[in-house]
# Entry
Amino acid sequence: MASLISTNVNQLSNKGYQLPEQVKIVEVGPRDGLQNEIEISLSDKVSLVNMLSHTGLTMIESGSFVSPKWVPQMANSSELFKRIKRIHGVTYSALAPNLVGLNAAIAANVDQIAIFGSASESFSRKNINCSITESLHQFEPVVKQALAAGLPVRGYISCTLGCPYEGYISINKVAKVAQQLHDMGCYQISLGDTVGVGTPEAAKAMINAVSQHVPVEKLAVHFHDTYGQALANIYAALQLGISVIDSAVAGLGGCPYAQGASGNVATEDVVYMLNGLGIESGVDLNELIAAGNFICQRLNRANGSKVALAYPTAQARFQSKI
Ligand code: HMG
Ligand code: MG
# Structure
């Protein structure tokens, strides 16, 4: 199982804010990216995870143990976990919202699970068919049994900066759910801008509200890039000491229950920005771009990473691999 890259936010920059020296990237492309895609074979999914495993990423959310009636695209996650070639030092994680999912995840030998709640009542009902309170109640035994089985649990909160059904969401609601997930035993809380509507000052206000209840070292950010604000929001989050960033190769992503939301921020673009800031991520940009080009070619779609589009040499590298 991969160890977390240590955070060092002690160096105050001459700009008056702190930036971490290292950042851990949680690659969510194979899960968040492909949960919306029907036209993709299992072997291509496996190839994507295998390519990502060689980029230096230390955590790859590779699948999802949810109801196949709700998200048929993730129905072959057990098979995927059987087929991928695991690399030492990489954590292969998956979503598991209930005990059925947890048991399937354990049987598939996942390294870690994530539960996923919401700060919006409406989104909670649309996404997991229950209220926020009911969801937290249902998560409790999942976390307990996962921890007993030796699986760390990550907690997501959706709609932290807005909801596709309700619009405005109070940051106090986000903070309350974060505290409950943390108290339950989640080692990290990933704050999701599911619809990608947030802007930097709003993101800062939300993170500040949450960090009154959960230490900032235990927070991650998960920005969808619908309005093109994700990198700016990540930069704002870094200034507050956030050192774990979720992103998806090639900017894949979306949630079947958040219509209109586009993909996650592209991992390539995050790595490029971190490189420019002198923040270590351990990720090889060329290998990452090759993986992104591979999956875009298989999906027959344009690459959602600006950096990948700007790196023609990586395209040539990809061509030589197929
Ligand atoms: P439900 O219909 O209320 O649950 O769904 P149920 O217990 O009545 O089960 C219905 C059927 O599903 C039963 O089968 C269960 O056995 C089966 P039947 O008896 O009808 O044949 N079932 C399962 N099968 C496989 N694995 C399971 C499982 N659970 C039940 N784990 C449920 C409730 C939570 C299951 C459903 O609503 C669900 O699966 N929702 C998942 C939705 C989802 O995956 N959304 C995308 C991920 S979240 C996201 O993208 C946001 C995030 O990226 C952060 C952000 O961007 O904000 C994380
Ligand atoms: Mg998401």
